[in-house]
């Protein structure tokens, strides 16, 4: 008898296959639980420090990530690109810069900060402060 004839005439199909012990048994381990839900964050970029000859930004200017990323100077935007993406994914960099004006918060009440300096070789001296705030459910 051909296989198709057997399945068609007996009507066993997958149920017969399972009953014969050839499919998934009930004593198998259950599938693993789904991964925990990812945390969500709000990112704000603030111009923390500017040099005397800075013309592109003003101290205190704030940007929301990702909404305002196109409004930023390309040099500064590219300098902080990797850090911003990693902070948005929940990564926390371990260095603290203790005792400097750039001392960071590391997940204090859901807030983490990071400082990035613009690579502009002039005397612009722009430093941005990135603040990551956890969005509570």
Walkthrough of the structure:
- The protein has one domain (40-135).
- It contains 3 helices and 4 strands.
- It has helices spanning 3-10, 13-19, 74-88; strands at residues 40-49, 62-65, 111-117, 127-135.
- 22% of the residues lie in helices and 22% in strands.
- It has a 4-stranded antiparallel β-sheet with strand order 2-1-4-3, covered by helices on one side.
- The model has no long low-confidence stretch (mean pLDDT 84).
- With 137 residues, it is α+β, with helices and mostly antiparallel strands.
Summarize this entry quickly:
By secondary structure, the chain is of the alpha+beta class.
In whole angstroms, the N-to-C terminal distance is 61 Å
What is the 3D shape? elongated
Tell me what portion of residues adopts beta-strand conformation: 15-25%
In which order are the strands of the major sheet placed?
2-1-4-3
The residue ranges in which pLDDT falls below 50 over 5 or more consecutive positions are none
Kindly give the count of domains.
1
Calculate Rg over CA atoms: 28 Å
By secondary-structure content and strand pairing, the structural class works out as alpha+beta
Number of helices: 3
**Biggest sheet: strands, sense, closure?**
4 strands, antiparallel
Number of distinct beta strands: 4
Order of helices and strands: HHEEHEE
Mean of all residue-level pLDDT scores = 84
The percentage helix is 10-25%
């Amino acid at each position: 008898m051909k296989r198709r004839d057997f399945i068609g005439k007996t009507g066993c199909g997958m149920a017969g296959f399972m009953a014969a012990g050839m499919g998934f048994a009930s004593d198998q381990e259950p599938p693993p639980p789904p991964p925990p839900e990812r945390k969500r964050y709000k990112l704000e970029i603030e111009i923390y420090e500017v040099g005397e000859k800075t013309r592109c930004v003003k101290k205190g200017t704030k940007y929301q990530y990702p909404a305002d990323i196109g409004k930023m100077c390309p040099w500064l935007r590219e300098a902080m690109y990797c850090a911003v993406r990693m902070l948005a994914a929940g990564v926390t960099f371990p260095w603290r810069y203790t005792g400097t004006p750039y001392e960071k918060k590391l997940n204090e009440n859901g807030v983490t900060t990071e400082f990035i300096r613009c690579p502009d070789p002039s005397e612009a001296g722009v430093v941005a402060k990135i603040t990551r705030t956890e969005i509570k459910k």
